[in-house]
Amino acid sequence: MMWMLGAGVCVGYAGMAVAQGTPEVQKRIAAIENCVPPTVLIRNGPEPCPTLAKRMAELHVPGVSIAVVHKGAIEWAKGYGVRQTGGEPVNADTVFQAGSISKPVAALAALHLVEQGKLSLDADINTELTSWKLPPSDAAPGATVTLRELLTHTAGMTVHGFPGYEAGVQVPTLVQVLNGEKPANTDAIRVDSAPGKNWRYSGGGFTVMQQMAVDAAKEPFPKLLHDTVLAPIGMSRSTYEQPLPADRLKNAAMPYNDDGTPVKGGPHTYPEMAAAGLWTTPSDLCRYILEVQNSLAGKTNHVLSQSMTEKMLTGGMGGWGLGVQLGGAAGNPWFSHGGVNAGYESLFVAYDKDGDGAVVMTNAQGGTRLADEVMHAIAAVYDWPDYRPVERTIVKVDPTVLAKYVGTYELSPDFSIVFTLEGNQLMTQATHQPKFPVYPESETKFFLTVVDAEVEFVKDDKGQISYAILHQGGQDHKAVRK
C-alpha cells in the first residue's frame, strides 16, 4: 500500500441520500467542487486550483461519490459523473468496491468476537484456527502470531495485497488463498520475519484473520459481517458478498483503468473478503465513522464497548491501531484508511472526538490521487487542523547523479519500487501502480506530487546506493536495492 493511504466527471449531480439544502451547506459543497488543490504544492510554482470536474476528466475517472460527516452527523452526500461510460449517473446510493477499507470494517467484527470470548487478541492464533493452521516459519523458528499482530500489521506476514479474479476465472477457496495453491494468484501467506518486531502492511494477515473469524463464528464471513457490524450500525447498502449479487449490480459503479478503459470483465472477485471484499457507499462508511466516534464517547456501542474502541484507536508500531491508521495531534487525533482494488480507489479520514470526517470513493485506477485532493479541499472548507497541501521546493540535480538511482528497491518479497530515468526526469513505479515523476529537493532526497511521500537514497561505505528510505504517513520504510 505504499504511495497509497485510497472521483470523474461529466458533471450531472444526482441522488442525494442526505438532506443538504441549507445555503451554508450548499456553499461548502460548491467550494469543494470549484477548488480541488493538489496534494503537494511547489514553492514559487503555479498555484493551481482546478474544479472537481476538470480533475476527474484529467485523471480519467468516470465517477465519484462523496459524503461528509460534520458535528456528529452526515451533513451531505453526493454523486458525480457516471457509473460507467455512457451510462447512468452516480448517486449517493451507488455502491463501489472499498478495497482495503474493507479491513477496518472487518476489524470491528474480529474485535466483537474478542469481546464475546470467541477470539483472543493475544493468544497464539493456531489455538483458535480450526480449518487451517499457520505453518512453522524457518525465518522465525518457534514464533507465534496473535490477532493483535494481524490487525496492526506487525505479524511478519507475507502478501501485501490482492489483485482479485477476473470474471469467468476460477476463484479459489480461502484455504487455497492461504496456501498459495492454484487457482490462487498470490503466494502462500506465511511468516517471513519475527512477529512483533517490525511494521509491514499485509493483506495476507487480514486474510488469516478472516479464517479465524469464520472458524470462531461458525458461519460464512458475509453473514457474520452483516449480523455483527453492517446491520447494527445501519450500513444497509453494504455487503461482503463476493461476487456482488446480480440484483445489486444495478446500481454499482463499474471499474476503470487509469487510461479510461474499462477493467476487462467488470469488477474482480475477492475471496479475501476481510482484506478487500467490501461493497459499500460513502454514506454507509460515514455510518461506520459515526459508530466509531460515538462508541469511543460511550454514546452508542452497537458493535464494540467503549474500552475496546479505545484499544482499537490506540497507536502502536508504525502509527497503526487495530485495523486503522492513526495520526493527528495528541489532543485531536484522527483515524483513516485508503482502499485500492482493480478499478476502484477510495479514502476516508475521520477525527476521534469532534464528529468530523469524510469519505471519497471512485471507480478508476488512479482515483486515490483525486480522492486525496478532494480530501484536501474538504479539509480546507471545514477548517480541519490536518490534511492540508504540503509545500516543497525543487532543486537542480545533474542527470549523471540521477542515473545512479536507477534500479529496483524491494520493501518486501511481493512489493518493490522501480526507479527509471526518462530523459532528465527520474520516474518511480510501485508494484501494481502507475508510473509517476519524482522531483529532487536535495541530491539524495526526492518527493512525489501525487501523494505526500519522499524517497531518500542512502550510500554504503563505498559510495554506492545500497537502499532507499520511503517517508510516508509519518513512517519510514527501508527498500533494499536489488
What best-fitting shape do the alpha-carbon axes yield?
globular
* CATH domain class of the domain at 99-249 and 263-335: Alpha Beta
Low-confidence stretches: 1-17
CATH architecture grouping of the domain at 99-249 and 263-335: 3-Layer(aba) Sandwich
The fraction of residues assigned to DSSP E strands is: 15-25%
What do we call the CATH topology of the domain at 99-249 and 263-335?
A: Beta-lactamase
Alpha-beta content class: alpha+beta
CATH superfamily of the domain at 99-249 and 263-335: DD-peptidase/beta-lactamase superfamily
Mean pLDDT level: 93
Report the end-to-end length measured between terminal Cα atoms.
Answer: 20 Å
Secondary structure: number of strands: 19
Largest sheet: 9 strands, antiparallel
Radius of gyration: 22 Å
| Number of alpha- plus pi-helical segments | 12
Biggest sheet strand line-up: 14-13-12-11-19-18-17-16-15
Into which percent range does the helicity of residues fall?
A: 10-25%
Folded structure, characterized:
Among the domains are: 99-249 and 263-335, Beta-lactamase; 393-481, Lipocalin (Beta Barrel). Helices cover 24% and strands 22% of the residues. The chain contains twelve helices and 19 strands. The model is unreliable at 1-17 (pLDDT under 50). The strands form four sheets. It has a nine-stranded antiparallel β-sheet with strand order 14-13-12-11-19-18-17-16-15. It has 482 residues and is an alpha+beta fold. The chain has helices spanning 23-34, 52-58, 102-115, 147-151, 174-179, 203-217, 221-230, 273-276, 282-296, 306-312, 367-381, 399-403, and strands at residues 40-42, 63-70, 73-81, 96-97, 279-280, 325-329, 332-341, 344-351, 357-362, 390-392, 407-412, 415-422, 425-430, 435-437, 439-440, 445-447, 453-459, 465-472, 475-481.
